[in-house]
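Hi D.,

Good news: the full-assembly prediction came through. Inputs first.
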Amino acid sequence: LFFIIVFHVIHITIHLTWCFCSSWWGGVQMGPPDPILGVSEAYKRDTNPKKMNLGVGAYRDDQGKPFVLSCVRKAEAVITAKQMDKEYLAIGGLGEFTKSCAQLALGNDNEVLKSGRNITVQTISGTGSLRIGANFLSRFHGPRDVYLPKPSWGNHTPIFRDAGMQLKAYRYYDPSTCGFDFKGALDDISKIPEQSVIMLHACAHNPTGVDPRPEQWKEISDIVKKRNLLVFFDMAYQGFASGDIDRDAWAVRYFIEQGHNILLSQSFAKNMGLYGERVGGFTVVCNDAEEAKRVESQLKILIRPIYSNPPMNGARIAATILNTPDLRSLWLEEVHGMANRIIKMREELVAGLKKEGSTHNWQHVTDQIGMFCFTGLKPEQVERLTKEFSVYMTKDGRISMAGVTSGNVGYLANGIHAVTK
Amino acid sequence: MSIFSDVPLAPPVAVFKLTADFREDSNPQKVNLGVGAYRTDDCQPWVLPVVKKVERMIVEDGSLNHEYLPILGLPEFRSASAKVALGEDSPAIKDNRVGGVQALGGTGALRIGAEFLRRWYNGVNNTATPVYVSAPTWENHNSVFTDAGFKDIRPYHYWDAANRGLDLAGLLDDLEKAPEHSIFLLHACWKKIAEIMKRRNLFAFFDSAYQGFASGNLEKDAWAIRYFVSEGFELFIAQSYSKNFGLYNERVGNLTVVAQDSENLSRTLSQMEKIVRTTWSNPPSQGARIVSKTLNCPELFAEWKGNVKTMADRVLLMRDQLKSKLQDLGTPGTWDHITQQIGMFSFTGLNPKQVEYMIKEKHVYLMASGRINMCGLTTKNIDYVAQSIHDAVTKVQ
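Then the structure:
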């Protein structure tokens, strides 16, 4: 009897051990929740009819609805009528798209384009572009570090890390002024080791909305040149910041003029509203066409084992818009319209706060540019704004102006004043 | 001094170079048997009728916009993909232990799966886990796993050149000798293989790029996967809709994850999200919408299966005809493998010299391995191709 019992115990033990070890994924940790997604989730659950979602990084019209640009719908109709096939694109993407993408950023008459010393590939929107760039740097420019502005877009850090690069930072945002820490930036940049990579937001800095002025860009260019740093521009908002595509690309074009051979990521998610279609470009400005060919060949080698070749739909829409004169004009109008609505909301928010009787200086709200605004609110104030007014935003005090409408800007001003007076 | 002065010129990807050479060839009889894309009997690309119909529906739906998809993709697409792979009534699906990651084509699904395995399988960040790919395999398999960080990629026996068929004994031997916990990238497998893999704790990663396209029947082509799932395996399936939906350039794929239970599944998917976020943030919506609408609507689903069968049947017809013609010509060697093999490709058994002859003298373009895309054959060019193969085999050793 004793023998039988022992046998059973052993049998059960073995069975239990087999069960515990039997999933390959027993050791996989739960990934941390995404901070911005968490905001949207909480917003969805809230039943307050006056609730506002100021976490969303996507443009909304004055009714708070997603906005499909007319030029996009028109381009889609043109494309549908052509009844094209669905053959694979080249690894580097749709030629008409990459050409017009580079022209948009650099200007049609740029000497870089004329001499063919750039390589521009189609990418999976801005993220895909940054990742290709990061992978390329890791393979051909490692082991240099990448310097991000403090703060930067949250996804920059894991993108470069996953590509195998180390991140450092340079001062950028000054919380005491809610503006640009110009002196701190120059100071930090002057100490960056030579040949390091420096990431610059071309316009409409994310998350702060704080952009350097042209004179400041000039000094940054000088010090970057002195330190022999490799410049990587992230331009996700061309046209969306000031409403003028050339003005928003000024820094990029100035740096090239000054002789920096830059890397550049472009996104058409916001300025063409093509978010889910994943349209972007990655450009490397090289010394000459021969070098561009070598770099291009290596980019293809990098891209092929990630997704083989990029998706056609969004790129074809973007190319059609950029290359059809009246669609392009319509687009420029609509981008201007989106940027203007944001600018107007900034003005109305400041006016609203004054009207509420706020004695704080809210000038930074109109000084900042682009989709986001770093309000300067502290975490406790943000928490109150969310709990008492159902206004959802990230803890760092960032709000997406796209979520503000003429219908709710007064309510927002009221709420912000209440938690800051 | 440029920072890029030391960047070497990389060789072009072979299969695309072949197509580029084909394009430049002015010979009127040229035939492209290289790239893996379906062609009609007029040698034209074919947008499936059901795809055209669904695209019209999408364009006309004013409620649709271009907002971001969730990181893991369109939910209806992911669930429909799981059903396509595992069957509507799959017990694993009913147990809530099947998940999906919408990806950029089959390549994207493979890459996300490979990155996940490198981070979380067989320990944490164990880049030394051996990865076995078939010999030969799609050339990109090697690069996908290498760039995901794996350091030890090995071939397993698959193609028996002498007999022009599956080297089953070699394959089974490799399975028996593989270190425990090795990852095996499988195209198609059998009961014996499953038995060994279970016994030796080997991980099954299926590459399913041709479901429905191979035999003309979705269930038949998914038999191996479903068998493994029924045997209790946890596994990955990289699905592609490039060929069976003809949506090549829309980049529509799905990584199906079968885990032991929903708790393990949810932790796994949360880590997949992190990988996706730094690679492409969220996937493209157009192709997923087309596939999802089609798979989730009974009439459209039936229409799609019909379109797939049309393609598969044409390929089967070409296989049949090519074999017959070679036999009629009395071409030396056996040609049964042409009809025994399945799917878009056929390994002809032509050696590199014979392949060179085919390209240079006959303007028939195929891969150096002797691989041909059956879709490049039509009733109009098949006689010419058969004659060319005959000449290559008889004139070139």
